[in-house]
Amino acid sequence: MKIRSVKMREAHTQKGGGVSFCSVVWDQKAEHLVTASSSDVSLSIHNPLLPSAAPKILRHHRDGVTALALSPNSTCLASGSVDHSVKLYKFPGGEFETNITRFTLPIRSLAFNKKGSMLAAAGDDEGIKLINTVDGSIARVLKGHKGPVTGVAFDPNGEYLASLDSNGTVIIWELHSGRNLHNLKGIAPDIGLDVSTMNVLCWSPDGETLAVPGLRNDVVMYDRDTAEKLFTLRGDHNQPICFLCWSPNGKYMATSGLDKQILIWDVDRKQDIDRTKFDERVSCMAWRPIGNALAVIDVKGKYGIWDNVIPSSMKSPTEDIPLQGKNSNGFLLFDDEDQDNSVSGSLSDLGENSNGEFEPPTSRKRLRKHSLSEENLDEYEEEGIDLYPKAESHKKRNRSVKENLDNGNVVFRSPMVTSKATMQEAFQSGATPVQPGKKRFLCYSMLGSITTVDYDGYSHIEIDFHDTGSSPRVPSMTDHFGFTMAALNENGSVLANPCKGEKNMSTLMYRPFSTWASNSEWSMRFEGEEVKAVALGASWVAAVTSFNYLRIFTEGGMQRHVISLDGPVVTASGFKDNLALVTHASDCLSSNDQVLEFRLFNIPLGTQPLRGRLPITPGSSLCWFGFSEEGQLCSYDSKGVLRLHTSQFGGSWFPVFSAVKEKKSDENYWMVGLNSNKLVCVVCKKPESFPQVMPKPILTLKDLSFPLATSDLGSEALENEFMMNNMHLFEIQKKMDEMDNAGLDVSLLDDEAFNLEAAQDRCILRLIASCCNSDKLVRATELVKLLSLEKSMKGAIKLVTALKLPNLAEKFSSIIEERLLGEVKKTTETSHKENNSAPITSDSLPSGSKASMLTETSKAYTVSSSKLSTLSFIKKNKTQDSTTDGMNKTAMVNESTNVKQIGGGETSDKGKEEMQAPPQSHGTNIKSDPGLVTAKRGSNPFLKASVK
């Protein structure tokens, strides 16, 4: 075994001859070496080519430096300290930039991501801050460790962050969501309170393997996606490993142990190829990015360079380095005018007080530079969703993230990704992303689909309908334009493509399925203008372009309207005469929320019935937008929330489905459409978020359900049914009113409304039973007031009587009497107004009316209980003569007016209801006048009362 084969030089003096954790890093070009010690407030920048030259010293911390990190392009140096602060410097100049964040306890670990856009900082606080290096804001705080976090490492592929604490627990985090994917407890040594030793971990350069110190003086390798143990490196270490690092090409690994040894491993062969014994324990190592050397530093603050680590007969450690794509590797540089405020290194210069918390910034510019208050860490859990691209799969990653910088207050040395949320790009509902060599959907709806597949220089488009029996057969077509979006209805299809250079203009094509004339297909071309979304209606075609123009065409191809929109389009959809579209109302909020607006146009009438903000879940984006089969506007966002527009409350969006409530974490729902009661979707197994054309997608129906809170009755299903019925009932009555005002026949809708009212009453009766069983009597009385049918009210009285709740039965009786009296008063007042008479009061009502109502109420107490399912709901007869109907209704409600006094009963048709004397009441002293008559089937004063 070699002993002291590496020449060591003193970089940091240890106080009292003790030991401390020391750090060392190389820059990208191997021209500088940076060292630090937890017992020294200064950082040292060495020139490895001139080891005898004095290093450059940076003194800005007030206590020992415990962590170092260099951005991948070596333009930014970060340091963490026992003084709780993280500082940034220009590199290699060493000019102090900013205190980018603070903790309440010492920092132990720092790491930049592959692009240099994000810095992870962690320490004794047990939380991990993800800091955006563009503006210094905290993008996310990750919490889950139960001890000081001593090691953090970004996955080179930009998908995960791995962290390790002093207890030996490893957590793998998903960056774009902040979720804790894997929690591996106790797999690394427990270092306790020894601050001179740090548990560290490291990803392989290709990102496929995570190396962690093991419990048997070894290194354990874990799979990136499953976190399963792959293999171990076990050799001559006789004490636990305290540091490890991969060679740049991932073929070799260096490990340092508490036994003062460094072993060099051939990872593929799983064996050590060299080793060296040192006088002191080596606390940190760094492979030289160019050449064959390893920099080391021990716990006494001495550093050295081990040259020719790998034998010349073997592959160099920097040969065949894996590539993860082109790096940006930039970081923030503030304006010169701001540097004067930060060169001192004082925490107060950046809005931080002596307690480690931030004071309110005094300007917008300073706000962009500061991290946020320690007291509000939990609020940042939902921020930064768009910092990282969502991966299509764990093996095939999407690394394209668009840049969107807000203003000129930040200067960059090189372009890079920013954490500022970008406005959502335009999309076509029902379309799937481009997949080279595979078919994709240009459109997929409740009616059918349009698919395309790329060949050499052209595409092949097919149109298929789900119902092949009643739909036309459309021949496939060769696409020479490269269409990327489409819309479909029963009459035809519209397709469009984006611009492809200056010569290939954006094209819009309409293709009818059947026509009496030849050559009815038409197309439009846009010079310098690009189609972003298309829609199709009963007799019109619409396209929204990059100029924020809404262009309306007739079915024959005539240009009818050009409308300027006040924001970039997100998507558009058509249904019969209606066109709905979504635009951006403004730039994204600081909370990463999209600000969207929807507009509904009636194309034939040239009107805009609806316009307003489109709500989506915070941190999400819009995934689907369109109409239900009944013509209601709907939206579906990336958080799995479906919203339905209703005219209630002046026009509101109701959340009627949530994927989270389904409690199936391994499924994604790809929206297709919906009807009044069901969501139609394609279920995709995660991580897939959209279906393939082959095999043919299977449509799945999901029940609509409001995201209700957990009820103390345990009756969420009944409450959901009640709310759904109420929403549909409101829409039906609104439609009936509109049709009635237009002079149209509403008989079919009237039947539908009555059936829905009957179903709603059955639901309310079940809720009343649940309230009675849970002793929620006040809630039961509230529900009784919502019943629509008189028969249902009597059924409610029978129910509570059977449950032996006489006080509640009496309450119900008073409610029904009050409603009957109110209906009588309303009807009589209307009659008196028509006769120019003075309005009446309840005291002036005929005594027989009150007697008859009390009779009906008292009868309910003596009737034995029956099952709720046997309750019958009698629909009132429709009369042909409105005058006679009004008089009959008044007679039936009063139940005290003689037929002869009505003046129309004797001349009524056969279809009118027969009149007979009411039965004598039981259990009451009120006697009915034998001269009074009542209807055989009483009128229903409660009908539609709940939806007026």
Quick structural overview:
The protein is of the alpha+beta class.
Strand runs, count: 56
End-to-end C-alpha gap:
93 Å
Backbone structural class: alpha+beta
Provide the β-strand percentage band: 25-35%
Which strand order spans the largest sheet, edge to edge or round the barrel?
Answer: 1-26-25-24-23
Count of DSSP helices?
10
Which whole number gives the mean pLDDT? 78
Global shape = globular
Mind telling me the C-alpha Rg?
38 Å
Q: Largest beta sheet, briefly?
A: 5 strands, mixed
What is the helix content? 10-25%
Uncertain runs? 325-419, 840-948
Structure description:
This protein is α+β, with helices and mostly antiparallel strands and 948 residues long. Strands 1-26-25-24-23 form a five-stranded mixed β-sheet, with no helix packed on it. The chain has a four-stranded antiparallel β-sheet with strand order 2-29-28-27, with no helix packed on it. A four-stranded antiparallel β-sheet has the order 3-4-5-6, with no helix packed on it. It starts with a strand and ends in a 13-residue tail after the last strand.
